[in-house]
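Project standup — Tuesday

K.O.: blocked on the structure for the chain from last sprint. Re-posting the sequence here as requested.
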Amino acid sequence: MPLPTGPVTPIKFGKTIARLPDTLNPNSLYAVRVGTGIDLYVSDMTGSIAYKSNSSGISDSGPIVKTYNFVGPVLTCTGTARWYPESNITLSSAFLCSGTAPLGNGLTVEILKNGLTIVSVNLAQAQYKSDSVSINTTLTSSDYVTVNVTGTNSSSDAMLTILYTKG
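H.V.: unblocked you, prediction finished:
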């Protein structure tokens, strides 16, 4: 289907908490809070009706992402910042990416639960993304995660991505 040509009508964005407003603005996108997610609505050009999105949104049952960003040169360090999950979760996998591919022995990051290493993730020499490493470790809301950089060689602007599920 070809895209329409001619002038484009600007769209307005609105955020509402519990329901659509009584008076709709024309050509507007509304985000309505529902439970732990949102429903999206788009009003028509007259503002007389809002159409709900066909998407069901993000499910709590799928993987959720937690990232750790290392800005600039990545240096060996012992992580002290603790991340406490808001509920019971299962860490499923992790991988590393870097803006500058490491030299030598690569970049190695440890993921720790309550101060004990549960897995190491290694970004090999001359690579920009590591393989995904399986974790399969459960945490409660009173457990915490920290991250140590144990090996680095000229990497910069790296990101550790941890995938987890609730429950």
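K.O.: great, moving the ticket to review. The chain has a mean pLDDT of 83. The domain at 64-166 is CATH 2.60.120.340 (Jelly Rolls).
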